[in-house]
Design a protein that fits this description.
Helix 2 packs antiparallel against helix 8 and helix 8 runs antiparallel to helix 9. The chain is an all-alpha fold. The longest helix is centred in the first third of the chain and has 17 residues.
Length: 273
């Protein structure tokens, strides 16, 4: 039992960065595409938050932060502000914002889902599972919540349970790129890069796939030694500044090659005798 716990701890230490990518990718979908976070009462942003550079995120955080301070109980402003904060890496502050919003909107599924996202980003994984479970309703299951639950379960080292949730999400929303990507990254966590690449390829081919999906695919391709192909994927369809940021991320992750090899070894069954 101790060895299994040590292996799980080592896996999460090695994958701290990519674990956050998984959470961000899945949980950011919890807000739902059919109900955008940005409304007329919130300062209009020049582009989607997930495609912003660091300076752009800083400006967006300041702008939306002022609107939030003026009305901290406003649901949409709080959701948007927390999202920007998490994309900026300010997870503790995002959690504080969502806790305040949840007090005013205790039964709102979207608010609960975003609170779960913030809890997961802040490392409160068990609390995040409970919050996401409260947001889910058996008679109207939400694929985004199943996927969010899977992301947290993966971070807890419960990959089998996580993949079950991703497949439940795909039963409701077939071909959803964020779910396919997270399913692929779940296999990365257990060292199965070939299966991971299969799902990530499927995800990247979907019309609604975003740059984070391609970033995950580039990482998995690079981990298999196909570095030139990985760099091409990482910089595809991006402006020069975004491409440079993606390549910097990719090279940083691939620099941990020895740690990834150890991770893969930990994830494989040991031969007897």
């Amino acid at each position: 039992m101790a060895n299994r716990h040590n292996s799980s701890r080592r896996r999460m230490q090695t994958l701290g960065g990519i674990g956050l990518v998984i959470a961000a990718l899945t949980l950011s979908g919890c807000a739902g595409r059919e109900k955008p976070l940005i409304t007329g009462s919130i300062p209009k942003l020049s582009k989607p938050v997930d495609s912003m550079t660091g300076p752009e995120l800083a400006r967006a955080s300041e702008t939306i932060g002022k609107a939030y301070e003026a009305n901290p109980k406003d649901r949409n402003t709080g959701l948007s502000y927390a999202n920007v904060l998490m994309m900026s890496g300010r997870n503790a502050q995002a959690l504080a914002v969502m806790q305040q919003v949840a007090i005013a909107h205790a039964n709102d599924r979207e608010v609960l889902a975003s609170l779960g996202k913030a809890q997961a980003a802040a490392g409160q994984l068990e609390k995040a599972l409970g919050t996401i479970a409260r947001a889910q309703t058996p008679d109207r299951p939400d694929w985004k919540l199943y996927s969010a639950e899977g992301a947290v379960l993966d971070q807890l080292g419960r990959s089998g349970d996580a993949r079950g949730r991703y497949r439940m999400a795909l039963d409701i929303q077939p071909g959803e790129p964020s779910v396919l990507s997270n399913l692929g990254m779940s296999y990365v966590l257990s060292g199965d890069l070939k299966t991971a690449e299969t799902y990530l390829n499927q995800a990247s081919q979907q019309p609604t796939a975003d740059s984070r999906v391609r970033q995950n695919l580039a990482l998995v391709v690079g981990l298999q030694g196909r570095f030139q192909e990985a760099e091409q994927i990482a910089s595809r369809e991006l402006d020069p500044q975004q491409a440079a940021a993606n390549l910097e991320y990719l090279r940083g992750m691939l620099a941990q090659q020895n740690s990834w090899k150890q991770l893969a070894a930990d994830g494989k069954p040991k031969k007897s005798g």
